[in-house]
Each structure stands twice: as C-alpha cells, then as structure tokens.
Amino acid sequence: MTHLFEQRRNYTLGDPELDLIGDRAKLAQWRHKGIGPAFYKLGRKIVYRGADLNAWAEANRVEPRAGERH
C-alpha cells in the first residue's frame, strides 16, 4: 500500500502537505464537527500523525467500478 503521508512524521497546521486533504479552515470545520482525521490537541497546537492521516485517507478511498456511469 502506498502512503500519502510519511507514517512516522507529525504534521502541524501550516505544513503544506496537509493541503492535500483540506485547507486550514476545512480542517478546523472537521475538528469542530468531530469528523476528519484523528488529531492531538496539545494546548493550542494541533498535531496530526502521518499514520492517522494515512488510515483516514485509506478509509475514504473510493474504488471505481468498471462500466458504471454517473
């Protein structure tokens, strides 16, 4: 399985790699609604683990079905 994020790395708001899943405002909305990838809140700092981002991305993967039209 290919990973979109480095498994052992921690990502913080402002890291450009997070833009792959959403901008700062979108991530804030998801945190407020209790959806999106798992995160740590350390004081005022938000930290995403690469492993959690990859797990969330994999859970949201869509496999297109051959021959089906939308």
Description:
Helix content is 29%, strand content 16%. With 70 residues, the protein is α+β, with helices and mostly antiparallel strands. The chain has one domain (10-59). It is globular, with a radius of gyration of 14 Å. The model has no long low-confidence stretch (mean pLDDT 94). Residues 24-61 form the Helix-turn-helix domain. InterPro entries: HTH_17. This is Helix-turn-helix domain-containing protein.
Number of strands: 3
Task: Give the terminus-to-terminus CA distance.
Answer: 28 Å
Low-confidence region ranges: none
Number of domains: 1
Q: Return the average pLDDT rounded to an integer.
A: 94
Q: Count helical runs.
A: 2
Helix content: 25-40%
Order of helices and strands: EHEEH
Outline the biggest β-sheet: 3 strands, antiparallel
Morphology call: globular
Q: What Rg, in angstroms, do the CA atoms define?
A: 14 Å
Beta-strand content: 15-25%
Global structural class: alpha+beta
- Placed side by side, the strands forming the largest sheet appear as 1-3-2
Pfam family, one: HTH_17
Protein name: Helix-turn-helix domain-containing protein
Organism: Psychromarinibacter halotolerans
InterPro entries: HTH_17
Describe the secondary structure blueprint for this structure:
Blueprint: E1 10-12, H1 24-33, E2 40-42, E3 45-49, H2 50-59
Antiparallel strand pairs: 1-3, 2-3
Short description:
By secondary structure, this protein is an alpha+beta fold.
Give structural attributes.
70 residues; alpha+beta; three-stranded antiparallel β-sheet; 2 helices; 3 strands
